[in-house]
Each structure stands twice: as structure tokens, then as C-alpha cells.
Amino acid sequence: MPSQHIVRAFDEELALLANRIAAMGGHAERMVDESVTALIAGDAALGAKVIADDAVLDELQREVDDRVIVMIARRQPMAEDLREIIGTIRIAAELERVGDLGKSNAKRVAAIAEARQPRALFRGLEALSTLALTQLKDVLDVYASRRVDSIAMIRDRDEEIDAVYTSLFRELLTYMMEDPRNISACTHLLFCAKNIERIGDHATNIAETVFHIATGSQLPPERPKVDHSHKVVVTSEGAEIVD
């Protein structure tokens, strides 16, 4: 957190913002985790819960935005404090979007559950979700501690998420080719997989914002990107990447 101020109320307001971000982060994590669980189990009730939970995340974001506006008008912060407050808005927006992606996946539960698929179809989705949620949790831990030593490593880890997503993309296409009955469920799972890959991107954006809050500097703009799903084509041999 920024250094202590003469006005104790300002420090309390900054602490409250940090608490709201922590609450948003925890809520968004649960939504994504539960949406994947609902997809795998075909649990429509859990999917409906995730969809309803999105309203809580939206309300938390509105509260953060409203508090930030009041703080800027009242305190007129500068330098480190201004970075903290503006960064909070950006992080809240990223977390709200993570919740939206979890909600989007939850909406597909019923469509996938209509024709239950082999368990193998969901293994890649589980692995991808684990990676993305670990990325999100780790960056939120850094936000809470402001120990930014691991930020670059966390951001670069997005490369692994992209690689797993590309592999899953190919796998799902192959399942569709092998059995047309898989097409409907696999198409929905492709959308779900892309949503989870995007969660990794949002976690990476948060990492960059936290680094700027803590140091006043920007991370190098280049970041690893190995999502090659746009190069995947269907051939007589199966789904493969063509350069």
C-alpha cells in the first residue's frame, strides 16, 4: 500500500478499495471454477448459480468505481496515490470481465449436457482452467503483497496457457471429425476453452497494472503469445497446425 498519509481516512479508503478488489478476485475465481465443474458434471443448477452470481461481481465493480470517483474529487491524489486509485479501476474492470467469461461458460451447460460426452472431452478443459485460475490467484496475491519480483514470471506463464489452449483446440476438432455426434458439444466446448484462455489474458493485464502501481514503471510491451489456433486446419490426417 502507499505510504501513510496525514489524513488517516484516506489510508482507510485505500484499504477499503484493496479489500473490494480481493472480494472481486475471490468471487471471480469461484465463478470460473464452478462454471467448469458445472460443465463437466452437466449440473444445470450450479450453472444457474454461476449466472446469478455475476450480479454480485457487477455490484462490487460499481462500488469500486463510485468510491474512486469520490476519492479523486475529495483527495485530488497525485503520483503514487493516483496510480493506486486508477490501477484499482483497471483491475476491477478486468475481474468483472473474468466473471462475465465464467457466466458465458455456465450458459452452455444445458446445451452440452443434452448429449453427455466422454470424460476425455473435458480433461483438456480442466487442465486449461487450472492453469488460468492459478495465474489469476498468483497475480492477486502479488496485488495484496506488492512483492512484484515474480510479476514478469507470472506474465510470461501465459505462454503455457496459450499452448494448452491450442492443443485443446486441435483435440476437439479431432473428436468432431471422428464422430459427428460430438460436433454440437465440442463446438460449445471450443467457445468455453477460448473464454478460459481469455481469463489468462486478463490475469496478465492485471499483472502489468500491479507492476505499474508498485513501481511507477511499465513492463516491456512484448509478451509471449503462442496461441496458434488460427493456424489449425482439418486435413485427411486430422487437425494439425499449418505454418
CATH architecture: Up-down Bundle
Order of helices and strands: HHHHHHHHEE
CATH fold-level topology: Methane Monooxygenase Hydroxylase, Chain G, domain 1
CATH class categorisation: Mainly Alpha
- Range of helix content: over 70%
- CATH homologous superfamily classification: Phosphate transport system protein phou homolog 2, domain 2
The total tally of domains equals: 1
**Tally of DSSP helical segments:** 8
Structure description:
There is one protein chain. β1 and β2 (238-241) form a beta hairpin. It is elongated, with a radius of gyration of 20 Å. The protein has 8 helices and 2 strands, in the order ααααααααββ. The model has no long low-confidence stretch (mean pLDDT 88). With 243 residues, it is mainly alpha-helical. The chain has helices spanning 8-41, 44-75, 79-106, 109-113, 120-145, 151-156, 158-178, 183-215, and strands spanning 232-235, 238-241. The protein is 76% helix and 3% strand. A two-stranded antiparallel ribbon has the order 1-2. The chain has a single domain, classed as Phosphate transport system protein phou homolog 2, domain 2 (Methane Monooxygenase Hydroxylase, Chain G, domain 1), CATH 1.20.58.220.
